[in-house]
Amino acid sequence: MVRVSTHPMRLLAAGYGADIVYSEELVDKRVIASARRVNDRLGTVDFLDKGGEQGGRLMFRTSPDEKPRLVFQLGTAEPALALAAASVVAGDVAAVDDILKTLRRNLQIPVSCKIRLLNSDHDTVELARRLAACGISALAVHGRTTQQRPRDPANWEPIRLVVDALAGLPVIANGDVMSYEDAQRVRRETGCAAAMLARAAMWNASVFRPQGFLPLDVVQREYTRLAMRWDNALPNTKYCLKEMADAPLSFSGRAGGPRSLAGHEGNTSITRARDEQQLCSLVGLRSEPPYEPSRLELRQNS
């Protein structure tokens, strides 16, 4: 999701059990114009805008421990640009989406694709077949058309038809998967290989735990720890915390916890935080560097 699927949020989701994490969608020309820099201080690989000069705006950051599970989402409509952009990041990610045949011919990493439903089940299945024929490694299907919004119920039945038509190709179901139980249910009802979550993961990334949601204050604290550890931009950290604060009550987990930043009051407190120290204080996190690895990071690397 835009502004949410940044480095610390991906690590948080992976730490709670996500097998695959997606980057934000980044446009091909922006990726081509970026410069790759190894950040020795953080142990990350950074891609910077404006030719990668010192102080250039950070476009994308990743770390080696997330590489095996990271899908880089590329927005493009031109095969040559797609290849040029994909080549920039190919050494640091696990898969790239879009312009399939050109990428499959020229890249040594898996290529996947994500689609929405077309106006008829027949058209959706035919599109899926054409994409599969390009040699993709997996296909994600969102159970809504491009005209439908999140408030419109997702339709899982066409996903089942795609699964039946593409025997042997992993299909990832997306749409109205709001809990661990929903993920299991969509797998049963469609036969898909995996379920993709977006809003639920944004609101409470512990949704990937079979044991259920953790209290919101625990998740907010772990997210903030990761954001500080990996030097995430403060505006982005605040944005993600505010999205958690605005989550429906069903995502708060055991009444939210005593330090939960939830609802209008929590959103306002996050907005007023002027720096990392104030933000850390809000979630009950020690703010003096160095930031020790979180329990989630240790779990990932063990």
UniProtKB/TrEMBL annotation:
GO MF term set: tRNA dihydrouridine synthase activity
InterPro entries linked to this entry: Aldolase_TIM (IPR013785), DUS-like_FMN-bd (IPR035587), tRNA-DUS-like (IPR052582)
Example of a GO cellular component annotation carried by this entry: cytoplasm
Residues of the DUS-like FMN-binding domain: 95-213
SUPFAM superfamilies: FMN-linked oxidoreductases
Entry superkingdom: Eukaryota
One Pfam family here: Dus
Name of the protein in question: DUS-like FMN-binding domain-containing protein
Organism: Gonium pectorale
